[in-house]
Amino acid sequence: MAGTDRVAEVMRRVDRRHFLPRDQRRWAADDRPLTIGHGQTNSQPSTVAAMLRLLDVPPGSRVLDVGAGSGWTTALLARLVGPTGQVVALERHADLAARAAASVRASGRTPWATVGTAEPGALGVPGQVFDRVLVSASASALPTSLVDQVAPGGRMVVPVRHTMVLVVRDPDGSVRTTEHGSYTFVPLVEDPPQG
């Protein structure tokens, strides 16, 4: 599958070590999550690869990266979409977002990828739609506010109660979900209850 080869290639080209705190870099080649501060982690490479393969990111697509953390997934997505695409990455911790933005800038000339601080009480960018949505934190239920941000023909990969879920929005707007194994993630900070 071409998408599988592209994921392996970008993971070879984007060195995980450059996205880790100095005290974690010696373990960059290990297939395990590594701490980056604030109780957050840089996900293990095999998990990231599985998520990116499910996401099936074509060149030129517009991607939302929720829970950008260290910025490693943002840089990988930037390479997958290329200069005709766009990656909008959000991280809820301002200092992690700033470090991630600096790491993404340092990883190569990818001005089409940006990292910002998530708006409190909101998931993603309400009111906008994306061809692909990657969520790197575990939701307690399928987050409808993020499903709403998946464009017709688009896909979202999100862990829900530690089960990896692929969400596909068909061209007619209908939504299908499939489950793809069990994973452990930090929890997604979700929208406060409405009322």
> In CATH terms, what is the architecture?
3-Layer(aba) Sandwich
Roughly how many Å apart are the termini? 47 Å
Series of H and E elements: HEEHEHEHEEHEEE
Q: What is the helix tally?
A: 5
Number of strands: 9
Main structural class: alpha/beta
Into how many domains do the coordinates divide?
1
CATH topology: Rossmann fold
From the spread of the alpha carbons, the general shape counts as globular
List keywords for this structure.
195 residues; alpha/beta; Rossmann fold; seven-stranded mixed sheet; two-stranded antiparallel sheet
Describe this structure in words.
With about 200 residues, the protein is α/β, with parallel strands linked by helices. The protein has a single domain, classed as Rossmann fold. It is about 25% helix and about 30% strand. The chain is built from five helices and nine strands; from the N terminus they run H-E-E-H-E-H-E-H-E-E-H-E-E-E. Strands 5-4-3-6-7-8-9 form a seven-stranded mixed beta sheet. Strands 1-2 form a two-stranded antiparallel ribbon. A hairpin with a 2-residue loop joins strand 1 (about 35) and strand 2 (about 40). The longest helix has 13 residues, at about 95-105. The protein is globular, with a radius of gyration of 15 Å. The N and C termini lie far apart (about 45 Å).
Secondary structure blueprint with pairings:
Layout: H1 2-13, E1 34-37, E2 40-42, H2 45-55, E3 62-66, H3 72-81, E4 86-91, H4 94-106, E5 113-117, E6 130-135, H5 144-147, E7 150-160, E8 163-169, E9 175-182
Parallel strand pairs: 3-4, 3-6, 4-5, 6-7
Antiparallel strand pairs: 1-2, 7-8, 8-9
Helix pairs in contact: 1-2
